[in-house]
Amino acid sequence: MRAIAMRSRAHIACVCTWLTAAVFASQAGAQASSMGQGEAAINVRSDVKLGIKGTGGTPSERLAKLGQAVSDQMGEIRTCYRKLTANAPEIAGGLQIKLTLAEKAKPEVEVLNTQGGAEELIKCVTRALREAPYKDVGRPAAAFLKLEFDNTRAKGQAEMNVKQAEIGRVAVQERLDGTKQATWSTNGDEVRFTVSAEAGTPPGTVELIMRGFHASYAAFLDCRRKCEKGGVSPEGDIEADVELDRSGKARVTLGTITVQHMRAPTCTTRAFSRTKFEKPPVPVKAHVSIHFAR
């Protein structure tokens, strides 16, 4: 989802003005207990703002009561957003909705503009508005709602996702014999991964396996760190064959290991076990050569 930068405005007036109510989530500790996400919620504060603008035919008195009824649902709407950002904190943006209360009819909620909003959030907010009690609101009545969503981790997480996407672009070289190969190194070149696949391997095999190492390279960095303890140089290569079944489960067969430290085979095996791969459409296999720099 694309993160949308929003600017809030607060107005309190008649039918043609926006009635704005800002609703802030509780402090990080309270969020952690309500979401049950533990550390995932630490230092994250979500902010949800509501704006209401009446249509030309809705009297100001009905608009005020309609605004109050919607404001009473902000706790539920805030929960919708908080649950979503527990796993996707980069999501921020807004929804524009038309809420209509016709005579002797159920509330009608029409989403006019999502501005890149998450589908899960749209469904949750729509449900909260449809199920809200409007018994004190005179009918017919209608209003335009503007909801703005933001949280303290949104910008940083979005930037991180962009960087991760850049890392995920793998330049694959195809040789004359049909074999394919791609190489990627960590920022400091401490660890370098070279993935190669034989001719006739399903398209995207090298990219898919390399993305797994992109996402899990920290385990190999840690292995390299352990392999330089005691004054031993960590420099060397680790050869392995990787086979993925359709569930993404990897079978790794270690080959030659030239890293001198005695812990190299153990920590390498552990690093491979912590590497997560996407599910391929068909079983695939490739060879990986991992180089630890001095």
Query: Main beta sheet, described?
Result: 6 strands, antiparallel
Number of alpha- plus pi-helical segments:
7
SS elements, strand count: 11
Basic shape: elongated
Number of domains: 2
Q: List the uncertain runs.
A: 1-44
Mean pLDDT: 81
**What is the helix/strand order?**
EHEHHEEHEHEEEHEEHE
Explain what the structure shows.
There is one protein chain. With 294 residues, the chain is an alpha+beta fold. The chain folds into 2 domains: 19-153, no CATH class; 168-292, no CATH class. 31% of the residues lie in helices and 28% in strands. It has helices spanning 28-35, 60-71, 74-85, 119-130, 154-167, 205-226, 264-273, and strands at residues 19-24, 46-54, 93-101, 108-113, 141-151, 173-174, 180-185, 191-197, 236-244, 250-257, 284-292. Strands 6-7-8-11-9-10 form a 6-stranded antiparallel sheet, with helices on one face. A hairpin with a 6-residue loop joins strand 3 and strand 4. Helix 3 runs antiparallel to helix 4 (119-130) and helix 6 (205-226) packs across helix 7 (264-273). It is elongated.
